[in-house]
Amino acid sequence: MPVSIHVRAADPGRVDIQAAVANAYAHLRHADAVLSPWRADSDLLRVRRGELEATSAHPWLAEVRVLAGEAEAATAGLFTTVLTGPDGTTGFDPTGLAKGWAVEGAAAYLE
Length: 111
Known about the structure:
This protein is 50% helix and 5% strand. It has helices at 15-35, 43-48, 59-74, 95-107; strands spanning 82-84, 90-92. Strands 1-2 form a two-stranded antiparallel sheet. Strand 1 and strand 2 (90-92) form a beta hairpin. Helix 1 (15-35) runs antiparallel to helix 4 (95-107). The radius of gyration is 16 Å and the shape is elongated. It starts with 14 loop residues before the first helix and ends with a helix.
C-alpha cells in the first residue's frame, strides 16, 4: 500500500524528524515482511504453507491474530480473516486489520 509522510514543522529537516520518518518507514517495511499475503517470504504465508511454526514467527503475527479474533468476536463474525489469498489458498489473512495496525505503529515514531 503506498504511504507518504508529510511533516509540518518549523524546520522539517531537523535530524530528529528525519530519523522519526525513517523509523516509521522501516516499521512499515518490517510489518510488510511479517504480515504480507503478497510476499512469498512473509511469516504469514510461510505459516500458512506449513514452512514456519506459528510459535517461531515474528510476535507481530500472534499480536495481529489476537486483534483479529477480538474483531471477529465483536462483530459476531461479520469481520473475518479467513480469506482466499493471492496464492489461491484459504487461510488466515489479516490484511485489512494489519494495514491499520501497521500505520498506527509507524505513527508512534512521529509523536
